[in-house]
Every structure is written in structure tokens, then in C-alpha cells.
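Task card 7
Instruction: Convert sequence to C-alpha cells.
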Amino acid sequence: MEGFMTKKSFVAALSILATLSACSSKAPQKPSEEASPQSLTQKRGDEPLKIIPQPKVVNKPLVELGKKLYFDPRLSKSGFISCNSCHNLSMGGSDNLTTSIGHKWHQGPINAPTVLNSSMNLAQFWDGRAKDLKEQAGGPIANPGEMGYTHELAVAELQTIPGYVEEFKQAFGTDTIDIDKVTKAIAAFEETLVTPNSRFDKWLAGDDNAITKEEREGYELFKSSGCTTCHNGEAVGGSSFQKMGVVEPYKTANAAEGRKGVTGKDADRFNFKVPTLRNVELTYPYFHDGAAQTLSQAVETMGQIQLGKKFSPEENSKIVAFLKTLTGDQPSFQLPILPPPSDTTPRHNPFN
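Output:
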């Protein structure tokens, strides 16, 4: 009868409805580019701390080459130590040791600073002896106590590896390899090691719920105590050299003299590059000598020797809580497969 569905048409209608329902449930899943991280816009513009922008890859072949070189232990004499050994990207870009271990188990003279967000530093190394990441990248390769090789031998070895020869050609337009190209590639990769989207960045972007009341109070203490005089900007540090021990002398057995080792001026003794506090909960131990094993200890010491302030346990806890909000998105990528050697590539012996 007209106005009533037959059994066949009723089943067909149910089938159509089920199909439409399935399509509807899938509709909110937008293309992948919409799910990608977006740069946050600073809404709290009067704050001394600034939002870290998303990393940008300008030259992908150069960055991919630099990534392989960063992880390749063949840049060391032993064939065992890579850039990632001391600046481990699974450990906040550091090695979580008081001082690093170098060639033949040499004990390093100073704590390894994080490589994360290092492109924002005014200079590289604690004493600022390298003006940029490119200049820094060549230092450890030829340092007898670090990677223990020479630039000449490292370049000669890379030249015997067909995969590298081809990748250098793609990145630079020539298959001739030299240390300038090696360090430029490593630096290009390191420039991508930026950690945006921390909870504190989201708060700076206007999200009041991104941090807790305790963390907000810790930030206010951080500011009112004078910490932002040195720890400010996008990296929350890294933009100046400051004396370690302004109010009270800092006592340490570490022999590092800071900027004095670069300038030769006694006035620069114990002046070190202010470290970034981004991801600081991951980059223990702290200070150039690695003497502070915990954030609580670091906050207590810095309050005393830099600010002349004795934080109460409650105040210390609040500042530490704030510092942990500075942990951002860690670099995420597929580990590179390093190109195999040729018959003429030297074989390393880590026991020599």
C-alpha cells in the first residue's frame, strides 16, 4: 500500500542510514596537516619569558645529512662516540652525567649543556668560545679528550663512504667533502632541535588552565626574586654571560674559569653563559660542574649565591613546579640509517 514501506525497501533504507552514519563518524577526522602542531601566539606580551616558535626546516637534504652525521660514531677515532653520546636526544639533549666521558674514558672537564634550543644561545659552550653551532660542531671531533679524531681523518673517511658522497652532493651540489660542509650540516640539524608547546607556552598564549595555581605562584616567585634578570626570552636563558656567585662565592673543585679562558681577563673569571631553563627537569645534574643533582638543590644554591635569598621549602617547591612547566615537545623523528662503509673505509678499534 502507498505510504507503507515494503520489507525490502525498509532493509535498503537501514543500509543507507548505516552508511551515512559511518561517513558522518569519520567526517571530523580532518587531513593530517590540521593535526600538525601550530605555532602559539603570545597573548601575555608583558612577560619576560617568550613563546618558543615551531622549528623550521629550510633545506631538508642538508638537515637529513646533518642528522646522520650527528648520530654517526665514525666521526670519532674509536668509532664509538657520536655527537649524540654527550647530547643524547633521549635525555633532554644532555648525558645526565656530572661531566662527560670522552675518548679512552677520558673524564670531561665540564658538564655537557643541552643541545635542545641551543640555536637561541648568544654563543656556544659554557665559556662562549664558539660563536655559533657550526663552529661548535667541529670542536669535539678534533678534541683529544672528546672524540679524539682529526678533521682531516674524519673527512677522508666520509669520502670513502659512497652513501655520504651522494648525500653531500644532494645537499651542496658537489661530491667533495670538507669539514666546513660537515659542520654546516650538523648545525642545520641541530637548529631543528627546538622544543615548543610547553604548558607554560600555552599559558603565555592565554590558556589559564595550562598551569596549576602552585606553578603560577612559582612563576611569580621566580620573577619577584629576580631570576628573570638572567633567565628570560624564548630560551629562558642563553642570552648573556653572568658571574657564578654574585652575592656569595661559589665553591667548587672544578677548574673551569669561564670567560676568562677565552678573553684572558681576570674580571671574566667565573663568568659563564647563562644556561637555558627549557626542559630543565630533563637536563640534570646542574651548573657547569654538575654539582647540583636535583632541581631543588639548584634552586636553593642559586637563591643563596646569586640573589642572597633563602627560599623556604614551600617556596622552593613552587619554583621547581614552575620550572617543570617549561618542558616542551621533544624532537621526534625516525632514527637515521647510516650509510655502510666501502672496502677502503678505515675500520675503527675502540680499544686502541
